[in-house]
Amino acid sequence: MLHIKNLHAGIEGKGILKGINLEVNAGEVHAIMGPNGSGKSTLSAVIAGKDEYEVTDGEIFLNGKNIEDLSAEERAHEGVFLSFQYPVEIPGVSVTNFVKTAINETRKAKGEADMPASEMLKKIREKAELLEIDRKFLSRSLNQGFSGGEKKRNEIFQMAMLEPKLAILDETDSGLDIDALRIVANGVNKLRSKDNAVIVITHYQRLLDHIIPDFVHVIHDGKIVKSGTKELALELEEKGYDWIKQEATI
């Protein structure tokens, strides 16, 4: 589904990614870990097409299609979803209206008519129930006055509604208490299928106790320096990152 080949990218002339190679197949969950400043969030931003990042070499394919020249909006229409580490507040725009607009814009890009109101309402109810969201929450302005847990749960609700092919969760666990973490993780697990893929970017093993990854990759200094299964995340929890850094410099 996602094929990244020799990706080099940076921001304001500073190189951050220095040759990333990654393949993610449909039905898989990949966890990306690494010390601060290693390039994890940059990788997520570059895949999603954030304007401020510049790709200087390499290719990104989604389902066989080179998406490097597509805007962030066009990539979203192709099925890329990015859950932010720090979701922004949008006063005056309700959660429901935001999601309706996002869904109908994607349908429009595919030449489809707007989703009928009855179908949209049914879907909103189903996904809100799935994620244990009070429907009063959906009439509030997007993220305004939300707690950290509410913001992250709202991101997963958007993911549930949009049904992306590739979901990238950028440190979705940061700032969550145990209950909020469980609800968010359960939501992600319920949305997993053989037709979609998930990339989870995290510092901590605790999220991976709930969302079990098929593969774990460690980024250091802009490169994937080690890959393994979920046991690698447990090893990192126990030992930290110093041994990875030492291996990478040998």
TrEMBL record:
NCBIfam families to which the protein is assigned, alphabetical: sufC
Family note: Belongs to the ABC transporter superfamily. Ycf16 family.
GO molecular function: ATP binding; ATP hydrolysis activity
CDD domains: ABC_FeS_Assembly
Ranges where the ABC transporter domain occurs: 2-246
Organism per entry: Kordia antarctica
Keyword terms of this UniProt record: ATP-binding, Nucleotide-binding
InterPro entries named among the record's database cross-references: AAA+_ATPase (IPR003593), ABC_transporter-like_ATP-bd (IPR003439), FeS-cluster_ATPase_SufC (IPR010230), P-loop_NTPase (IPR027417)
Gene3D superfamilies, per the entry: P-loop containing nucleotide triphosphate hydrolases
Protein name (database record): Putative ATP-dependent transporter SufC
Residue ranges crossing the lipid bilayer per the database entry: none
Alphabetized PROSITE patterns for the sequence: ABC_TRANSPORTER_2
Domain of life: Bacteria
Keyword ATP-binding in annotation: yes
Recorded coiled-coil stretches: none
